[in-house]
Amino acid sequence: MLNILVMGAGAIGCFVGGSLSSQGHRVTLVGRPPLMQKIAEDGLKIQWPEQPAQTSFPETSTSVNQITTPYDFVLVTVKAPDTAGAARELASVPLIREKTYLVSLQNGIGNEETLATIFSPQQVLAGTITIPIQVPAAGVIEVSKAKGGLGLAPLVPSQPIDVLAEALNGAGLTTETYPDYRAMKWSKLMLNIVTNASSAILNQPPAQIIARPDLFDLEIEALQECAQVINAQSLTAVSLPGYPVDWLARLVTIRWLPRAATRTILRPFLRRGRGSKMPSLQIDLAAGCSTSEIYALNGAIAEAGQRLGIATSVNQVLTDILSGLVAGELNWADYQNQPGKLIEAVTTEKSRQT
After folding, report:
1. Superfamily designation of domain 3-179
2. Which three-class secondary structure string do you get for the chain?
3. Cα–Cα distance, 8 to 6 (Å, whole number)
4. From first to last of its 354 residues, what are the pLDDT tens digits of the chain?
5. Do residues 66 and 93 lie in contact, with contact meaning Cβ atoms separated by under 8 Å?
6. Where in the chain is the domain with CATH 3.40.50.720?
7. Closest CA relative to residue 101, chosen from 73, 135, 66
8. Residues in CB range of 1: below 8 A, 6 or more apart
9. Nearest residue to 300 (alpha-carbon basis) of 210, 225, 200
10. In the chain, where does the domain assigned CATH 1.10.1040.10 lie?
11. Top CATH class, 187-353
12. Is the distance from CB of 20 to CB of 168 less than 8 angstroms?
């Protein structure tokens, strides 16, 4: 039995933590008071397709200051802008032993490095998740499709990723291990950026984005830029559970393939992956969040492109506009349902970068 703390128990943290708790592992969720109270009273329900609902009763807390027991693994599931604050909070209490490992189950690039600066690389593991879930009600997690899984990778050799992988597989969460955490995380980034920022800026669902050839082409160009950045770092995109990202990276970099053919091949793949569900960046923007993961997503591609001398016009524009909207420097009403304005901004940026 493992002792596991989930730091930032939202949808992903509750899903993974609840799955482990149902198999007898000692799990403590740390999250917002209303949700933690609901789970403490009624339990955490996980509903897989065509299966009876699974209810578990993990321990709950609203602050790590209330906890004194050390843990084997700490699953960090806060959003990227909150990583440093969560790490400092964890470092301020006696929960992290020499053999305690922090696992970043977060989207974006840079979370592992942030954790490693506050703790040490020897105590940080990289993780990713590709299981599609939704939250129909507080304390209820619904698995949208029985596909996907988790990935784990070490930052340094000899870390116990197999121990955690065995526990996750035992909880019904298909888990694969990877030798290169950067290849794994950059591969997940390719999935994260698809229609994410453009849906937020235009306030349109992904299906509407890919229905327009000009907007679909922007998504393909953003993926091309990401694939080029991956290759320039001497990394190779890898297949993630349920998602052949290696195939995706190869497809978007085939220069001789007509763009219309690329759209035809990609359209079913993207519709299955996104559909009409609004992505995370749009949800955060609509909720009025003062921070955004855009810097760890498209922003990471743009930053790496600048450093490596690779033009990343689409990702730069998506980052600049969305960050401006989040900061209140730009008016969202000026961009909602205005695809021409987004396309014009990309055209201008391309001229600037060439």
Report:
1. NAD(P)-binding Rossmann-like Domain (3.40.50.720)
2. CCEEEEECCCHHHHHHHHHHHCCCCEEEEECCHHHHHHHHHHCEEEECCCCCCEEECCEEECCHHHCCCCCCEEEECCCHHHHHHHHHHHHCCCCCCCCCEEEECCCCCCHHHHHHHHCCHHHEEEEEECCCEEEEECCEEEECCCCCCEEEEECCCCCCHHHHHHHHHHCCCCEEECCCHHHHHHHHHHHHHCCHHHHHHHCCCHHHHHHCHHHHHHHHHHHHHHHHHHHHCCCCCCCECCECHHHHHHHHCCCCCCHHHHHHHHHHHHHHHCCCCCCHHHHHHHCCCCCCHHHHCHHHHHHHHHHHCCCCHHHHHHHHHHHHHHHCCCCHHHCCCCHHHHHHHHHHHHHHHC
3. 6
4. 999 999 999 999 999 999 999 999 999 999 999 999 999 999 999 999 888 888 999 999 999 988 888 899 999 999 999 999 999 999 988 888 888 999 999 999 999 999 999 999 999 999 999 999 999 999 999 998 778 999 999 999 989 999 999 999 999 999 999 999 999 999 999 999 999 999 999 999 999 999 999 999 999 999 999 999 999 999 999 999 999 999 999 999 998 999 999 999 998 888 766 656 899 999 999 999 999 999 999 999 999 999 999 999 999 999 999 999 999 999 999 999 999 999 999 999 888 877
5. no
6. 3-179
7. 73
8. 24, 25, 26
9. 225
10. 187-353
11. mainly alpha
12. yes
**Residue range 180-230, pLDDT digits in tens:** 999 999 999 999 999 999 999 999 999 999 999 999 999 999 999 999 999
Looking up tokens 């004194």 gives 68
What's the predicted TM-score (pTM) here? 0.96
| Dist. CA 134–CA 47, nearest whole Å | 10
And the tokens for 88? 């400092």
